[in-house]
Amino acid sequence: MSIRLRHDAIVRSLRRNGTSTVNDLAEEVGTSRRTILRDISALRDQGFVIHSEAGRGGGLQLDPQSVQTTARLSVDEVFALLISVAAMRAARSLPFSDLADAGLAKIERALPSDKIRDLRQFLDCLHIGQLSPHQDISDMGSMDPALLPAFEAAFLKRMHLRFRYRNAKGNETDRAIEPQAMLILPPLWYLVGWDPARDDFRHFRMDRIRHPEVIEGTRFRRRHVPFEDDVCPFREMSRQ
Hints:
This protein has 8 helices and 10 strands. By secondary structure, the protein is α+β, with helices and mostly antiparallel strands.
């Protein structure tokens, strides 16, 4: 379990149980007492108010009004929030868009400058449009949760992406492409990539992609993607 996931697990346990001992937390998250004590100190530095009482019946208690005072969201988590809002806006199903935009702006302002730079690079690759009413979506499946972390490395570092792809006929192939853009046509999401084997752009439905893997040591250049006129960059659409 990573440090971040462990911290999240500790906070959830303290909120759920009210009081926990160091030994109980160590057993619950599968680590040592020393590590839990370091984690508690780190959580306090982040703004969580955690009380400790010695003796029988004592333990660790999280102040119920306690919240962290530093942003701990990663770029891909903020990006996931942004593209979810973008998809809802494109589908015209975002009833509180002003509040959503204001909240996301606060999150963005809380990010370090290097993370903001990465986030904006991500957003430059995002495009929104409308799905044709004739498009068959009866076979739409779920997206592989490994996609977004893979996209972060592939798009930001401009590295090739390898994955297993199933086409509309159910045939599966191994693909290796240059990821150039993400296209949202609610409710479908597409990865737009330059396919060196076919010397052309290809659109891949994200719900048909499995086992995405960044190919280390590869590099590619950004290309102009010839979208249709009704497809807008996310930043332009967010200002409408």
